[in-house]
Amino acid sequence: MPSATPGCLIAVVGPSGVGKDTLMSAARDRLAGRGDLFFVRRTITRPQASDAEVHIPVTDAAFDRARADGAFCFWWEAHGLKYGLPASLVGDLAAGRHAVVNGSRKVLADMAHRFPRLAIVSLTARPEVVARRLAARGRESAEEIARRLSRTVEIPAVAPMRTVDNSDDLGTAIADLVAAIESFAQTPARSA
Q: Which of 46, 68, 92, 160 is most exposed, with minimal Cβ within 10 Å?
């Protein structure tokens, strides 16, 4: 039986290099015992890599077929890839479960229209920390890293938001992310 109060969709966003995958994996482990909260596994048109989020890897053609068949309740394109959230998410939220998703800053306004009970956790880190992390990955040249650091994507004021800084102590950042997720999951739905 669906809950009278829909669950909250908590979008965790932040630029490459802030440690989003590391923080989300640790938060998932810490919150594993909660039956009212889960982490969404996205479908993405890229192969699985050991240093990235666990997702459902598909080809472009398979993604397009799945989208046409109604497999996604929300999808977007970014950086030459396609990302999809499973259609089952709608039922989970309607049943009062809270969901945490690795989101994109560029689609938050659209996400807020689709999911009225959206909340945002913005992950940040000082530019020099991000530059060091990106360089350690070895995927981009120094010029590409500098261009990435010069880009800014504003987070629209479309939902309640908390910021977590991951510049220094990883344990503190994990605890802050867990606290932000728990806070949003405990916040009652706003009345219309």
A: 68
Q: Do residues 119 and 161 make contact, with C-beta atoms less than 8 angstroms apart?
A: yes
Q: How far apart are the first and last CA of the chain?
A: 22
DSSP 38: E
Q: What is the pLDDT of residues 161-187, one digit of tens each?
A: 999 999 999 999 999 999 999 999 987
Of the candidates 188, 30, 184, 54, the residue with the CA atom closest to the CA atom of residue 120: 184
Using alpha carbons, list the distances in angstroms from residue 147 to 80, 81, 143, 144, 154.
17, 19, 6, 5, 16
pTM confidence score: 0.89
- Cα distance between residue 51 and residue 154, in whole Å: 26
Contact partners, residue 22, CB within 8 Å, separation at least 6: 170
